[in-house]
Design a protein that fits this description.
This protein has 119 residues and is mainly alpha-helical. The protein is built from six helices and no strands.
């Protein structure tokens, strides 16, 4: 298995775990990171959307769809700066930067792997 596919598989597993935690255990999950207790349905809806995205990632891994891999790099690179702006503006706590660092770091991993595989 190529490194880009491994990176996508790792990120897919992360997304599946995130989906389960936000859909099934939203209060425990947010409390673990010191986030406010979620009110209403919004966090579960976000978890469902993460699960749908995880499905796309898993299908891309199964098909070794490197075009999809490349597309995700750009989106994942945007996560850290976006969350950093949210933290700077006071919309969320600094712990959000861990999620942003993981997402963007995995995007960098995939991008570098794709570059290495292309040469």
């Amino acid at each position: 298995m190529e490194h880009s596919t491994i990176s996508m598989l790792v990120f897919s597993v992360y997304m599946v775990i995130l989906c389960v935690l936000t859909v099934v255990f939203p209060n425990n999950f947010t409390a673990l990171f010191g986030l406010d207790r979620p009110d209403g349905l919004w966090v579960r809806v976000c978890g469902m959307l993460i699960g749908i995205l995880a499905f796309y990632y898993i299908m891309a891994v199964r098909e070794v769809n490197k075009s999809f891999y490349r597309w995700t790099v750009y989106g994942r690179l945007a996560v850290f700066p976006t969350l950093a702006v949210f933290v700077i503006l006071g919309f969320g706590p600094p712990i959000l930067l861990l999620f942003g660092a993981w997402d963007s770091g995995c995007g960098i991993w995939t991008g570098l792997a794709l570059r290495r595989e292309a040469s």
